[in-house]
Structures are given as structure tokens and as C-alpha cells.
Fold each of these.
Amino acid sequence: MTNPWDDWDHVLKVDPDKDLRPGETFEDVCRTGTDAIEIGGTLDVTAEKMTRVVDAAAEYDVPLYQEPSNPGVVIDSPSLDGYLIPTVFNAGGPFWITGAHKEWVRIDDLDWSRTHTEAYIVMNPEASVAQLTEADCDLSADDVGAYAKVAERMFGQEIVYVEYSGTFGDTEKVAAAHDALDDATLFYGGGIHDYESANEMAAHSDVIVVGDLLHDEGVDAVRETVKGAQDA
Ligand SMILES: CC(C)=CCC/C(C)=C/CC/C(C)=C/CC/C(C)=C/COP(=O)(O)OP(=O)(O)O
Ligand SMILES: O=P(O)(O)OC[C@@H](O)CO
Ligand SMILES: [Mg+2]
């Protein structure tokens, strides 16, 4: 089976709770050359903030995916290409593994054809996502590879996401996840801030995800990371 992300090198993650740089617009964001925009963040995201970003980006060509951090922020919009639904494999308890998902399916009427699975392995203990989900980030490369294989082989996850949100990761651990996968696509995110860092992590993963750089530095810096990913 083919998936849109089979051909991606670069995803830009827009946090609906954060502003763009002064003078920059969503048109600029959509013209960075990124392969897709993923809309989501851990803290202080609401359906209203999500809608604002989706509506602002809808008229441009780039694929738009929502990445909800809880069932309450999922929005129903024809402008979305799909939903990337996290499951935190190394979470401290079941809520972020199956509990939130059970609640979502109970209260909502899902469009399964646009709903896709993302197995998170959360690696930076300082990140809000690690704190919220009480993730066990004390993992060796072997642990990371094993989680990736479990996600793909036993839980049928379409995407495995090694998440270092806010810090540049350990390439050996990212490579261990990459080596473990045959079918699932490996996303890497965390601390990518220029051509070099993008190029380096792109060599150890299938798709790199760039987040805070957009909000902190702006679209020109993001464009450099797109080049770094494409050249890897
Ligand atoms: C079942 C549904 C619809 C939702 C639950 C989905 C799950 C398990 C979410 C838990 C993990 C999570 C909060 C993912 C959100 C995406 C993410 C990691 C965004 C990056 O967040 P950070 O960069 O750490 O946070 P801030 O930038 O907001 O501080
Ligand atoms: O914000 P950064 O550190 O680029 O991380 C990107 C993404 O993996 C966050 O979910
Ligand atoms: Mg962030």
C-alpha cells in the first residue's frame, strides 16, 4: 500500500498556540517547500486555534494534517488531508496509549479513511509531551529499536515518530529505529535548526519534522532545513 508520506522528506509542524514571526503569513509558511504541514502542539491547543490555522493554510497546495493532542481538539474540516493520531509507546500509563483513543471513538464519529497512526517514542524528558505523558525517556538504542519494531509488527502503526521535541537527538538511537522498520515510515523531530542539522537527521530517518524553528526564526530558516532534508 502506498501512503502520501512515502514520498515526503520534510514536515513542518505548526503549533496553533504559537505565533508566526512578525510580517510572515501562512502563505509564506506554505511556500517553504515543505512536503506537508502537521498542525499540533502539546500545551494550550484548542479546536478554535486549530481551525484558525487550518483555514489560513487551506487555500495553498501543501497537504494539511491535524495532529491532535487530545480528543477535544479534533476538528472536522474538508481542508484537512487527514489526521495523524499519536500513541505514546513509552508513556507512563495507559491513557496516552489507548485511553484517549477509546474516549475519542466513544464520543466522535471518525472518518477512518483519513485517520492514520503515529507511534511516538518520546525521548526528551524536558519536553512538555514527555511531562504530560510521564514518558520513560531513559532508553538505549536497543530499547528504541525494539519499540519501533513492536509498533510496526505488533500494533500495525503506519508511522513511527522518534520525538526529541526541543532538543537535537542521538543519531545512534534514531538509526536504531530506522534499522528496525521495514514498512512503517520513520519520522524524526527535535531541535532541527539549520541545513546541517536537517541533513544529518534526514540521513537517519525517512522524514524530518521541524517545529519551533518556524515560530522562533521564521520561514527562511525553515527553507534551509527543507534543502538539508532533500539533499540527504
Ligand atoms: C486519541 C486522540 C485524538 C488524541 C490523543 C493523542 C495522544 C496520545 C497524545 C499524546 C502525545 C501528544 C501530546 C502529542 C501532541 C503532538 C506533539 C508531541 C507536539 C509537540 O509538542 P511539544 O513541542 O512538546 O509541546 P509545546 O510546543 O506545546 O510545548
Ligand atoms: O520543535 P522542534 O524541536 O523542532 O520539534 C519538532 C517536533 O518533533 C515537535 O513535536
Ligand atoms: Mg513544540
Amino acid sequence: MCFGCSERNPIGLKLKFTMDGDKCRTEFVAGEEHQGWNGYMHGGLIAALMDETMAWWLWFKDISIMTAEMTTRYSLGVPVNIKLTVESWCEEEKRDRLFFMAARIILPDGKVPVTAKAKFLRIDPEKL
Ligand SMILES: CCCCCCCCCC(=O)SCCNC(=O)CCNC(=O)[C@H](O)C(C)(C)COP(=O)(O)OP(=O)(O)OC[C@H]1O[C@@H](n2cnc3c(N)ncnc32)[C@H](O)[C@@H]1OP(=O)(O)O
């Protein structure tokens, strides 16, 4: 019952993903229950949105992974109650095992308040 994408997780984000060319995308509207500071989305949840969108890029290609490392750059606050677009893509792959991924959040006016980079390692799907 994934916190990011399961329809059955009662407190989950219930994200749905699509692949468009080399990008994986989802949309999300944060509510007041997702706030940190008043009116702004909690940074940990922003990271979760991006982690999940990068993981799904790999999942669409049938690659089972774990996040091994992630860096998030918060340049602007992310307001609640507006539609966010989250995009991810793969920047590099090493030995068919280590995937260098990137993601960004896009606001309705085109501003990019947060970007992330992460390393994902392929794991044996039987271990999931
Ligand atoms: C339906 C779809 C649902 C999708 C849901 C996705 C959920 C979102 C994704 C997540 O949030 S996953 C949860 C958060 N992540 C974790 O809990 C991961 C915890 N860590 C682990 O399980 C292991 O450390 C890991 C699987 C990442 C790696 O363990 P391994 O035993 O497979 O690897 P090992 O430590 O032996 O390292 C293998 C190689 O990778 C290298 N490596 C490990 N960590 C690295 C790193 N951070 N950066 C670069 N290289 C790294 C390591 O040096 C080594 O290089 P060599 O092969 O050359 O020796």
C-alpha cells in the first residue's frame, strides 16, 4: 500500500503517472493537511512527490529500484491549493545498475520552485 501511489492507502497521495517521451509526469494539489508553514507545502512531502515520480520513471521501464541518495533544492515555497506538475527524467545510467535521476516541480505560472537529483540502485524484485 504505497504512500505515493496506492489508491487504497487512506492517508496516501494517490498519485497517477504518465510517460510522455522521456519524461514521467504527475499532478498534485496539496491541501492544508500537507502544510508545513501556513499556506506552503511541507518540504518532506515535496521530496516524497519527487522521489516517487523518479521511481515511477524507472518502474515504467520495468526496473525495480530503491532510492540510494537524493538532494533537493528548494528555491521558492510551494503554495497549497494550486495544481503542481511534477516531472522526472533519467540523466545517466551506469552498468545497468545505478540510475542518475532528476525531477522538478512546475507551478501553473511556469516557475520551478524545487528541483531534485537522486541516485537509484537496481535491486532484485523478489526483495521488494
Ligand atoms: C509500484 C511502484 C512503486 C514505486 C515506489 C517507489 C517508492 C519510492 C522509492 C523509495 O523511496 S525507496 C525507499 C528509500 N530507500 C531505501 O530505503 C533504500 C535503503 N538502502 C538499501 O536498500 C540499499 O542500501 C541499496 C538497495 C540502495 C543498495 O544496497 P546493495 O546491497 O544493493 O548495494 P551495495 O551497498 O552493495 O552497493 C552496490 C554498488 O552501488 C554503490 N552505491 C551504493 N549506494 C550508492 C550511492 N548512494 N551512490 C553511488 N553508488 C552507490 C556501491 O558503492 C556499490 O558499488 P560497486 O558495485 O562498485 O561496489
